[in-house]
Amino acid sequence: MENMMQGNKIRRVAATRMNERSSRSHTIFRIILESKDANQKDGPVHISYLNLMDLAGSERVSLTKAAGERLKEGANINKSLSVLGNVIRQLSEGKEFISYRDSKLTRLLSQALGGNAKSLIIGNVTLAAEEETRSTPEFAQSTKTVKNKTKVNILSATEETLQGYQNLTRDLETRLKKQAIKLKEMDKSKQEYLLEIERLKTEVSIVGRFQMGASASTPKKTLRRHTFGHYGNVSPKKHP
Question: Which among 204, 200, 181, 180 has a CA at the least distance from the CA of 192?
């Protein structure tokens, strides 16, 4: 619940002409459950997925008067909901190809729609928005014709499978250690570079002050006037 509350805090909401707290994105919270018989150490593992989804409502620009960032968000919401509607229509008509990959939303919902899942859809309606209230039940009604194919998800815990996971775990741990060493070396090099930069800055400052002091203490030489001869020779002017 703590993770769910944390995710809800960073959920994007903003005010529009139609709603003071309008959802500017869809929200998906997924829980993965793994269970097995406590009396069977190497028994099969049952895997279940619980997906809690809150879909943002479609918007009409003529009503929301959205502009700028709000307009872009609304367009993305409407596009994903349109793809979702197409997927449900394709499933209802028994099409061989289902365009799940046309949006991130439908990719995440692929198992819940026509896959290995049991789905429950709740439509939110309000008398304050007549047009949206009518379209919501129509959408919910269309999903009733979608048939899922449920089965129990079992991960076989055979010796070969377990050995494969153990090898994968060791490989990942080795790679993680190598990355940690690289990061440590990079941090050390960074500190050395910073110290070298500070040392050079100090030397530049000292040299600069020395040059300024030397320039101030050295008298300026008086330049003598020179006379140019007819043949381009230069000779100093004689003084009495």
Answer: 200
